[in-house]
Write a structure and sequence with these properties.
This protein is mostly beta strands and about 280 residues long. A hairpin with a 5-residue loop joins strand 7 (about 160) and strand 8. It is built from three helices and 13 strands. The chain has a six-stranded mixed barrel with strand order 3-4-10-5-9-8. The protein is about 10% helix and about 30% strand. It comes from Solanum tuberosum. Keywords: Signal. Belongs to the peptidase A1 family. This is Aspartic proteinase nepenthesin-1.
């Protein structure tokens, strides 16, 4: 996770706020976890620094916090997964790659999480489009090749990810349809979807299972082929770029995926071939 391994795309940082017009291929509305809360700024900064300690390369564009320059925090989004879709609250993280959600086999996952939101355990059998990913598939071969781990045949494609703050997630990869909004005009969106491979986590630890900190999972926006952005781009759904527009006062904002067009933005080129983290051995 956090393996920045291509250099031809650019990361768009939208520095304006809600008055701008943004044209893109997909939009995810995000909320600030700490919006309106009086939290110790050192604690927030320490939290994010520890979370990214093992997954950051030399380049990172953190999106956490309230948007104020002296504060750091977390943003989360609500996405739909499956057919028919269920809604999941996931942390948005530009410093990691894979997307994962708590799975039905999880024994310690809380029923409710941050601000008492109801959490949902994903069950691939409940979805008409859900299916397991096996070691012989190209996604798993690429994932294990980069990690240095072994996987073969028709065995389930497993993952085991540890974060710098001491939390971790373990599970297996599945493939299912993810729902998102597509921009159809100025201030107008319509539903869109794409088939994505993501983690089905059955064992989480630390803050990932804490009742007052937990979400349904993490949505990684890193640059490796395993990220949701890379997968949607490879299937022709979007272009391999994203932008964000965050409300620094009240929290929240949007993530725009794909072809983002706006005359007043700052372009930040991404540094190619930077690796910082190897998933631990299973």
């Amino acid at each position: 996770m956090g393996k920045f391994d291509f250099g031809w795309a650019s990361l768009l940082l939208v520095i304006l706020v809600w008055s701008v017009n943004v044209v893109s291929e997909g939009v995810i509305k995000v909320n600030s976890k700490f919006a309106g809360l009086e939290r110790n700024l050192r604690a927030l900064k320490a939290h994010d620094e520890m979370r990214h300690l093992h997954i950051l390369a030399g380049i990172d564009l953190p999106i956490g916090g309230t948007g104020r320059p002296n504060s750091v925090g977390l943003y989360f989004a609500e996405i739909g997964i499956g057919t028919p879709p269920n809604n999941y609250f996931v942390q948005v993280d530009t410093g990691s790659d894979i997307m994962w959600v708590n799975c039905i086999a999880c024994q310690r996952c809380p029923k409710r999480g941050y601000r008492n939101i109801e959490l949902t355990l994903y069950n691939p059998r409940d979805s008409l489009t859900g299916k397991l990913v096996v070691c012989g598939q190209s996604f798993c071969k690429d994932f294990y090749k980069r990690s240095g781990l072994g996987c073969s045949g028709n065995s389930s494609c497993m993952y085991d990810q540890a974060y710098g703050d001491g939390s971790s997630t373990r599970g297996y990869f599945v493939e299912d349809v993810v729902q998102y909004n597509k921009v159809s005009g100025d201030l107008q969106t319509k539903s869109g979807n794409g088939s994505v491979i993501f983690g089905c986590g059955y064992s989480q630890s630390a803050d990932l299972i804490s009742s007052d900190e937990a979400f349904d999972g993490i949505l990684g926006f890193g640059k490796s082929n395993s990220s949701i952005l890379s997968q949607l781009a490879s299937s022709g759904k979007v272009k391999k770029m994203f932008a964000h527009c965050l409300d620094g006062v009240n929290g929240g904002g949007i993530f725009a995926i794909g072809n983002v067009v706006q005359p007043k933005v700052n372009m930040t080129p991404l540094v190619p071939n930077k690796y910082a983290h190897i998933p631990k051995r299973l």
